[in-house]
Amino acid sequence: MNHAESDHYSGKKVLVTGGTGSFGHTVAQKLLTEGVGEVRILSRDEAKQDLMRHEISDDRVRFYVGDVRDYLSVERASKDVDYVFHAAALKQVPSCEFFPMEAVRTNVIGSENVVRASEANGVRSLVCLSTDKAVYPVNAMGMSKAMMEKVAQSHGLNNPNATTTVSCVRYGNVMYSRGSVIPLFIRQLKEGKRLTITNPDMTRFMMSLDDSVGLVEFAFTNAKQGDLFIRKAPSCTVRDLAVAVSNLFGVTPDIDVIGTRHAEKLSEALASREELARAADMGDYFRIAADARDLNYSLYVDEGDVRQTQFADYDSHTVDRMDVSAVERLLLSIPEVRRELQGAGRPIEAIG
Ligand SMILES: O=c1ccn([C@@H]2O[C@H](COP(=O)(O)OP(=O)(O)O[C@H]3O[C@H](CO)[C@H](O)[C@H](O)[C@H]3O)[C@@H](O)[C@H]2O)c(=O)[nH]1
């Protein structure tokens, strides 16, 4: 966070929905070191809140038990708040396939509650966390996140004088996040089990947690009403990821190919060509502005956007693909991976 950004937070009140996850922890710690006045954590699980309370132990952190599905609990938690980071979501692809309406309730209606409560309470800026699975979605999780993005963008379209600036960010795969494939591979290696690989050729964008938090901060600092931001990210195949993790642990893995899981894609796109045709390249980031026209299309001369044909999707199959050694280097930059390696008696210096 640079100085200009820290000034933003100084003495301010910030709400993080779904704040007991890894994003919430990291962002809360950062805000506290940047002089934030108060960090509010809104989440459903009191046990996780209690753990976090003991871990952080700072009286500027306040915990609100509640659910984004319930407007009143969001409204209470966002009273007098300056900024909101909306991370609460159902994120697991397979469970959303079985319970799509639960994804609608949390990811779509819950997000609308966060937008409405933020506006009602005069929040200045709200950043909503989305995922690459919202682009050309094939699963209920991605579809509900795509709808969340639409809800966020419609706020400005319907309220020209809105107080709250609402923006979105899209993540790729956050490395070592809870329940994801990297900790799974590491556990399998440590237990001497075979690595389960869905499809060796499947590709995913890899992002560190720090990069993800950086993306949210970038959105927060730069957002205009309805903007959506992505961070440029390298991708890799699942095969190369498995080989890289195994190399770091000094193991030649046995592999089981288990086939794709419910509603998985072979590759992901962080942005579609339609979006890139109207995006601004901001170095490490793209800003995708909302379509700000009103509903009266006849006022506009519409010649069709020829630029769309000049762009390709920002797709994990085609952009900057890492080789195994690049994946190893990226893995070594993740603190949890380094801790795992140390725990397994693999000193980082020896690997480097
Ligand atoms: O046993 C396994 C499990 C997963 N994979 C593969 O590893 C890759 C990553 O899988 P994860 O389960 O770690 O991540 P997903 O891409 O399924 O989805 C994750 O990343 C998303 C962002 O795109 C969301 O954040 C979502 O919540 C999170 O689960 C995928 O290609 C998957 O097929 C395997 O090879 N073997």
UniProtKB/TrEMBL annotation:
EC number: 5.1.3.2
Domain Polysaccharide biosynthesis protein CapD-like: 14-288
Keyword Isomerase: yes
Gene Ontology MF term list: UDP-glucose 4-epimerase activity
Domain of life per record: Bacteria
Domain UDP-glucose 4-epimerase CapD C-terminal: 291-338
Pfam families for this protein: Polysacc_syn_2C, Polysacc_synt_2
Any single GO BP term: lipopolysaccharide biosynthetic process
Catalytic reaction annotation: UDP-alpha-D-glucose = UDP-alpha-D-galactose
Alphabetical UniProt keywords: Isomerase, Lipopolysaccharide biosynthesis
Enzyme kind, highest EC tier: isomerase
Stored InterPro entries: CapD_C, NAD(P)-bd_dom_sf, Polysac_CapD-like, Polysaccharide_Synthase-Rel
Family as reported in the entry's similarity comment: Belongs to the polysaccharide synthase family.
Protein name, entry field: UDP-glucose 4-epimerase
